[in-house]
User: What shape does this take?
Amino acid sequence: MVEQVKRAFKYRFYPTDEQAAELSRTFGCVRLVYNKALEERTRAWYGEQRRISYVQSSAALTQWKKTEELAFLTEVSSVPLQQALRHLQTAFAHFFAKRAQYPRFKSRKESRASAEYTRSAFTWRDGRLTLAKMAESLDVRWSRLLPEGVEPTTVTVSRDAAGRWFVSMLVEDAIAPAPATHAAVGLDAGITSLVTLSTGEKIANPRHERRDRARLARAQRELSRKAKGSANREKARRRVAKVHARIADRRRDFLHKLTSRIVHENQVVVIEDLTVRNLLKNGALARAISDASWSGLRMMLEYECVWYGRELVVIDSFFPSSKLCGSCGTVAAKLPLNVREWTCTCGAVHDRDVNAARNILAAGLAASACGDGVRPQRESSRTGRSSVKQEPQRATAGIPRL
Ligand SMILES: [Zn+2]
Assistant: This one.
C-alpha cells in the first residue's frame, strides 16, 4: 500500500532587497493582524464570555483594511493575513480543548518571523517559486530535490534570529513502504550515550556538540560584555543566534540519519515515553538530555514510521526498564544513575543501558501483540522516584558493580 503523506521541504533562499522589504512588511502585518484579532477575542472572552469565530475575525480584518490607519494592510498579500487568523483559530481550538495555554501575543522581538502562503498566493512553475506581490521568483538553494511531480500546497516563508531566510514547502507525497523485515528494536534514551539499542549498539552523542557548546558559551560571553543598545551588541546577538542555528541544524541532520537507519532496518521500533520536562527537573540530567534531543528523535521516529509503514510502540515511562533483570525478571531495589553495570541475584551481569533497551523491546512487543500499547500512567505516578516505591520487588538487592 502506498501511503499519502504531507511532507515539508525546507530550503534556504536569498531575497533581493526588494523581496526582503516586501517580506518584512508582510511579517509585520501578519503580526499586527494576529495580535489585533487576539486582543478582540480576549476582550470578548474575558469581558463577555463570548467566543469569536474565524469568520468574524476575517470580517473584522476586512473592516480594518478600510480604516485610514490600517489601510497599509492592503499593500501586502491578503493570504498570509488570513492564514494568521486561521493559526489563531487553531490556537484557540487547542486552548478550549485544554490542550494548550491561552494564545500569546506575537512580539516584534520574537526570534522567528513568518508568513504562510496558500495555493492562490504563489506560483510554482518549472521549478521556480514566485510569491504574490513579487515580480521575480525566489532565489532558492535547492539542497535536496522535491519528489517528482508533487505540487506544493502551502509555502511558509520565515526569517530566523540569525537573519537567515527559509522557505518551507508543504507537499502531498506518495511514499512506498520500506521493504518488509521482521526485525524489531528497543531504544533506551541514554545519559552517557545518546541512544542504546537492544542489539547492544550504543550511539554516542555527536562529537561536534561539545565544540559547538564551547563556541556558544564564548559567543554568549561576548554578548554580555557589549553595552545595551549598541551596534556591537546587535552584532554579538546575531553571532549567538548563528551558533544556536548551527547547533540545531547539525543535530537535526544527525538525528535524521539515525532515525532513517533505524526505521529502515526494523519493522517495529519500541521507545519509552520519556517526558523531557520530567527529566529536565533532574538537574544533572538536563544538559545530557537536551543535547541528546530525545524529543526530536521521537518526533522523527513518529513520522518516519508512518511514512515507511513501520510500527512505533511507545511504552510507559513507569515501566522499570533499567532495574528489571532481562534474564530472570527480578526488579532490583535501587540502581543509582551512576551505576553503569550491575549483577542480578540470578548472576546475570547487565550493561545498564543495553538491559534497559532489551526490556523496552520485550515490553513493546508484548503490548503490540495484545493489540494495544502500554498507556502512559497518570501524571502523578510518572516520576521515576515513585515507581521505585510502588514496584513490587521480588529481590531486595541488585548488587551494582562499580
Ligand atoms: Zn536476574
User: Anything to note?
Assistant: The chain has ten helices and 15 strands.
